[in-house]
């Protein structure tokens, strides 16, 4: 089962992501700060990490670099989450080791499509069936 970490100081963003992605095929874990995320990654590296581009405690690029520097058998796919399309921020994140970006606020189709492009999304039919009430 894949594990995805959403690192965002907004509890709303984390809860929406968890409702959309969480289920029988993916575990979604939450970190409210960059420091929490680093501790959690050191203890148990997730398969996917979505990092808020505007964390108050640790710059997103530093967080990405620090995760990439950790010794782990898992090399997570990392996305930076932005409120607007900012090519310079995306390029800095990619140079630090991110695979791409996610724009927020996101909805179910946008988030599922982004995860499909990572080849890490749970099957959309099973998500649709199990998450219709979300």
Automatic annotation (TrEMBL):
Domain Response regulatory as annotated: residue spans: 3-119
Any one Gene Ontology BP term: phosphorelay signal transduction system
A Pfam family matched in the record: Response_reg
Source organism: Mesorhizobium ciceri
Modified residues (4-aspartylphosphate): 52
InterPro entries: Bact_response_regulator, CheY-like_superfamily, Sig_transdc_resp-reg_receiver
Database matches in SUPFAM superfamilies: CheY-like
Keywords carried by this UniProt record: Phosphoprotein, Transcription, Transcription regulation
This protein's name: Response regulator
Organism domain of life: Bacteria
Classification via SMART domains: REC (SM00448)
